[in-house]
Structure formats: structure tokens, C-alpha cells
Specification:
By secondary structure, the chain is an alpha+beta fold. 53% of the residues lie in helices and 15% in strands. The protein has one domain: Collagenase (Catalytic Domain), CATH 3.40.390. It contains five helices and three strands, in the order αβαββααα. It has a three-stranded mixed beta sheet with strand order 1-3-2. A hairpin with a 2-residue loop joins β2 and β3 (66-72). The radius of gyration is 14 Å and the shape is globular.
């Protein structure tokens, strides 16, 4: 059973962020499903699908006909407090990060990670959102 989150996130905000990331990622017409959950919910899915039963910030799955995103809202709140910016901006970063992964970006190698961070910053800038420090 997935955990629920009691943090309200405006649908229009999520749509705007996802659409901007899709445009940048070259998949503007991709269908995207977004699940906003808590740490227990994402840990359950993380364990089932990726073999790691610990909570994470965002998971993304590139599908033939679209993208599935799962985001931990409490993680966004914690990290935003730690990094000194608004939690909605952190949530937007997770959405963007997940979409970019599903569009083929990678962040494991140093050069690929730098490219992905530039893309994240560019997308957030088009939305007038700021993340104080990137991980």
C-alpha cells in the first residue's frame, strides 16, 4: 500500500513544470503520470522496482507511450529546508530531474551529471524557480 501525502500541490504547478521539462527533453507530447507520495510509499516502490527498499527523492520510468514519475513530497520539504529554498522549488527540481532521466539524460558520469544540472537549471529558470544549491 502506498503512503499518502497530506501536502497540497496545485495541479497547475505540476503540469507547468512537467511540460517545461518535456519540451526541453525533446518529448513535448509524452504522456506523464505523476504520483506524489510520502517516504514510505516511495520506499515501497523503490524496493519493488529497483531493489533498494530505502526512500529516495524521485523515481522515473520511461515507457513506450509515456513517463511515470514518483516523488516524495516530505523529502522535498526536508531538502528545501536544508538547502535554504522553497519546498515547491525542490519539488519542481525532482519533477524536472525525473523527466530528464526518462528523456535520456544520465547523472552517473561527471560530464553527464554536469550536462543534466545545466538542463535542470535552464528549465527551472524558464519557470522563474530557483534551487539554492544542487546536490
Amino acid at each position: 500500500m502506498l503512503g499518502a501525502t497530506r501536502h497540497r500541490v496545485p495541479r497547475a504547478f505540476v503540469l507547468e513544470v512537467v511540460r517545461a521539462a518535456l519540451r526541453h527533453g525533446g518529448r513535448p507530447d509524452a504522456e506523464v503520470s505523476v504520483l506524489l507520495t510520502d517516504d514510505a510509499g516511495i520506499a515501497d516502490l523503490h524496493g519493488r522496482f529497483l531493489g533498494d527498499p530505502t526512500p529516495t527523492d524521485v523515481m522515473s520510468f520511461a515507457l513506450d507511450d509515456g513517463i511515470d514519475l514518483v516523488v516524495s513530497v516530505p523529502c522535498a520539504r526536508r531538502e528545501a529546508r536544508r538547502r535554504g529554498h522553497r519546498w515547491r522549488d525542490e519539488l519542481a527540481l525532482y519533477l524536472v530531474h525525473g523527466v530528464l532521466h526518462a528523456c535520456g539524460h544520465d547523472d552517473h558520469a561527471t560530464r553527464a551529471r554536469a550536462r543534466m544540472r545545466r538542463a535542470e537549471r535552464a528549465i527551472l529558470a524558464t519557470l522563474a524557480l530557483q534551487v539554492a544549491r544542487f546536490p
